[in-house]
């Protein structure tokens, strides 16, 4: 699709100079479409817990006004719905902050090995609840990338949390930090049911879930991998996802080492 702009550059009669510009609208269209879809999805995701919250408020004000046991149960559900909305708003804010800074390459040296250790420590309790063993392998020396510490913590946290949530109950999650000559990578592997190939290309889209009910049950917002992808891209890296049905999934984020000049830089 093209839009044609016509501008008169002056002159008159057959000497009139006219400038014709052809503008390709297809890419702009796609971006606009994605924005509209995103707003619709976000609104729907917020609307659902909000409707439930309001429904319980009305029940508590009306039919269940004097029912003490119902009150306790309903308040617990309302708290859960409120927390779900809060998680969603937090994730939406994180995503837009990361996107706003997309053009600014982070440059502080951050040790991925240290971050991985911290994340494993902080998720030990969550892993224990699903009887999952976390197995961390890191090189003896620090593994530095030019980065943003908070974002890299978030990246590791989202990937390890997903491996615990969607991996096998009683299984193992392996976290490997690998240091190469010009690049470093973190690799998170679980031994759960894995992901069918048709889902893989869409997994990092906002609100894309393989199993919506399972994601909600696990407290997911559907934004975790979109956040991970944007963090990796801002760090001039790449994210690869591999999975064989029944044999778990592997998420690998690869980024340039600290001190290695950006490709194309002199
Ligand atoms: P959510 O908040 O739903 O966890 P994510 O963006 O983090 O959102 O993940 C998107 C979807 O990808 C999840 O809902 C789940 O279906 C799938 N997924 C993510 N990690 C794994 C994994 N390690 N194994 C199997 N499925 C996964």
From TrEMBL:
One of its GO terms (cellular component) is plasma membrane. The keyword Cell membrane applies. It is found in: Cell membrane. Residues 41-259 form the Histidine kinase domain. One of its GO terms (biological process) is cellular response to phosphate starvation. The chain holds residues 88 to 353 of 353 of the full protein. GO terms for molecular function: ATP binding; phosphoprotein phosphatase activity; phosphorelay sensor kinase activity. Coiled coil: none annotated. This is histidine kinase. It catalyses: ATP + protein L-histidine = ADP + protein N-phospho-L-histidine. Its EC number is 2.7.13.3. Keywords: ATP-binding, Cell membrane, Kinase, Membrane, Nucleotide-binding, Phosphoprotein, Transferase, Two-component regulatory system. Its main location: membrane.
